[in-house]
Amino acid sequence: AYLPATYHICNADVFFFLKETNQDITRNSSLQSRVDSFIIYKSKLPPVLNATYGPFSVEQAVPLDLMLSSTSFGFTNEFTFNWKLKSHIIDSSIYSNKPKIQTLFYIAGKDWDDYDPEERLPCVKMFAFLESREVVASCRLTGHLGLCVAELELSPSWFSSPPPLVSEDTAPLEGITVELFYKIYTADGECSPEDEKWENNIHTDQDNEQKALPAME
């Protein structure tokens, strides 16, 4: 036996109810409760979950903290709730004779059907850290693809730093690993520190971390 309730997602353009391949058959074998999973793929308005059981019906808005949204973009007709800012380091290894780090930032999940060339997109500021040193670059997302390239240049002192200590069981890394982070600013902001908001590390896995290497002979 199971609770014969039906669900519907309102205010969502595209959504899917999910079923686990190895779902426990006893999980929904009660007449008191029911558990189902769903994903909202595209929505311009705050989604609402509607549940119906016989003559009874109830609605509840999906909490916004469960949605991949951002107040930096705002909840407009142009930006869907599942937008995501993505990044790609153009060259993962740099050298002292060409000490520039370039990162491509772009928007995924935006509804571009009603693209307005005059639309103002957020600004992205990228930081590189090594010990107590820091260097910053910024760019503003633009165009019908919502992308930009942030470029920063490392001073010669970054390449003369001693490599970090490693244990005997760990293979030493070639060169120096530099941490990259980014901040995203509201579309109305001018990349001022007052509007800053920390976002994720550009690459979280060690294999993709930015490396600043000495010049090759």
TrEMBL record:
<dbReference type="InterPro" id="IPR055422">
    <property type="entry name" value="Ig_TMEM132_2nd"/>
</dbReference>
<keyword id="KW-0812">Transmembrane</keyword>
<dbReference type="InterPro" id="IPR026307">
    <property type="entry name" value="TMEM132"/>
</dbReference>
<dbReference type="Pfam" id="PF23481">
    <property type="entry name" value="Ig_TMEM132_2nd"/>
</dbReference>
<feature type="domain" description="Transmembrane protein TMEM132 N-terminal">
    <location>
        <begin position="6"/>
        <end position="67"/>
    </location>
</feature>
<feature type="domain" description="Transmembrane protein TMEM132 second Ig-like">
    <location>
        <begin position="84"/>
        <end position="216"/>
    </location>
</feature>
<dbReference type="Pfam" id="PF15705">
    <property type="entry name" value="TMEM132_N"/>
</dbReference>
<feature type="region of interest" description="Disordered">
    <location>
        <begin position="194"/>
        <end position="217"/>
    </location>
</feature>
<keyword id="KW-0472">Membrane</keyword>
<protein>
    <submittedName>
        <fullName>Transmembrane protein 132b</fullName>
    </submittedName>
</protein>
<feature type="compositionally biased region" description="Basic and acidic residues">
    <location>
        <begin position="194"/>
        <end position="210"/>
    </location>
</feature>
<dbReference type="InterPro" id="IPR031435">
    <property type="entry name" value="TMEM132_N"/>
</dbReference>
